[in-house]
Design brief:
two-stranded antiparallel sheet; 2 strands; about 60% helix; EF_Hand_1_Ca_BS; calcium; EF_hand_dom; Calexcitin-1
Length: about 180
């Protein structure tokens, strides 16, 4: 299955903004270590705090799962081509997501659900997405599109939006906005 330019742009956006944190051109464990500190700093979790430890454990499980699935040449890094190929396979059957993909989806939801009330609101969403350098105004517009005008997005809705992000070719699909961007 070939990948459209639209889906490729979405996949590269997540690769470059949320995974290749050190901008080296590949994803490696070091990116996850930087991301752990970024997330923990955003939430005020210090080394030794339970949430810091939990975040570290979850992120390393995500890295291990990603590496095992996508690092086809076993060089300890995930290249752009390996990344795109992996998500292209995912798009064939999003309901059969790998454990690490499910873990990452859940991690992002919990990170955005700062109040831990089981749903994400616009302010929670904007806080997380803007911490990755996305303009807060764009984050708010993305949330409105993602939430289809509602005030909150539940965990159940988020899971469906997640699947849509990684699999849809429809530029207007609500799932395209879960990472804070309004266009690709």
């Amino acid at each position: 299955m070939s990948i459209s330019e639209f889906r490729r742009k979405k996949l590269l956006y997540v690769f470059n903004v949320f995974f290749d944190v050190n901008q080296s051109g590949t994803i490696e464990r070091k990116d996850f270590e930087i991301a752990i500190e970024k997330v923990c700093s955003l939430r005020g979790w210090k080394p030794g705090d339970a949430k810091h430890t939990e975040t570290h454990e979850i992120m390393i499980k995500i890295w291990d799962g990603l590496r095992k699935r996508a690092d086809s040449n076993k060089d300890g890094q995930v290249s752009v081509d390996e990344w795109v190929s992996m998500w292209n396979d995912y798009a064939l059957n999003p309901s059969a997501a790998l454990k690490w993909q499910q873990l990452y989806c859940h991690f992002m939801f919990q990170l955005e659900d700062a109040s831990a009330d089981g749903s994400i609101d616009c302010d929670e969403f904007t806080t997380v997405c803007s911490s990755y350098g996305i303009d807060p105004k764009e984050c708010k517009m993305a949330f409105t599109k993602m939430a289809k005008g509602k005030a909150n997005v539940s965990w159940e809705e988020f899971q469906e939006l997640w699947k849509e992000y990684f699999s849809t070719e429809d530029p207007n699909a609500a799932g395209n906005f879960i990472f804070g961007r309004t266009s690709f």
